[in-house]
Give the backbone structure.
Amino acid sequence: MLQLKLPRGRRLDLTMPRIMGIVNVTPDSFSDGGKYSQSDSAVNHGLILLEQGADILDIGGESTRPGAPDVSLEQELSRVIPVIEGLRAQSDCIISIDTSKAEVMAAAIEAGADIINDVRALQTPGALEVAARYDSVAVCLMHMQGQPRTMQIAPTYQDLFEDIRSFFESRITSCEEAGVARERLIIDPGFGFGKTLEHNFSLLGQLSYFAELELPVLAGLSRKSMFGKLLNRDTDERLAASLSGALLCAQQGAQIIRVHDVKETNDVLRVWRAATHGVNE
């Protein structure tokens, strides 16, 4: 049975795909910027996502969309820590902190976070050390070519899949050498992070390639511009495309699906599970 070990002696069963609900505590997120920028509304939104079927809540205080401005350490801490504390006061849910700053990682874990979700794969100063110090916390390593502000300026690869796999192998080695055990790791191929439209849909069509690394795979493509470009749809018109992507990822073995639309994604996955594993699963 594939399980992810978490703080306080808990385990997350990953034999079936789990839903990670997105809680953006930012005024400029590409999808829901500003809607949950106040801590009370973000906490309430997180609790609603849990009721709708989220297994994990991913709390982020800095937008990583192309061209987004940098956020100071103080700003990011002031955005995410009250939300984590508020959620932890009302729930024993699994909380992920979406950050690349070591100081935010540490403060979030102290506040009750269970997972570090890092688009820079623990490559910023101090991040590896924090992950090693808090040895019961899981870590998601995402692949990104370039940096968020410029990543979509002509991304190129010698071999898309081999290049991403090589990146993961290198980061896994760095983690293990720093004291972050392999069984704590999750990998995310990084849809939309330094990828062209063709790259993104190649990844979506062959996501199972990364199963060879024998680590849980997280897929985050909810409402992303890859669907907008393909279908000429604005952000709020990408639900059907996002659900199609989520189902394709689940069918190819992704263990965690990161989404905005938890209720609808949960319905899709429940139908898929009933058809493939029986209605009682």
Notes: The domain at 16-275 is CATH 3.20.20.20 (TIM Barrel).
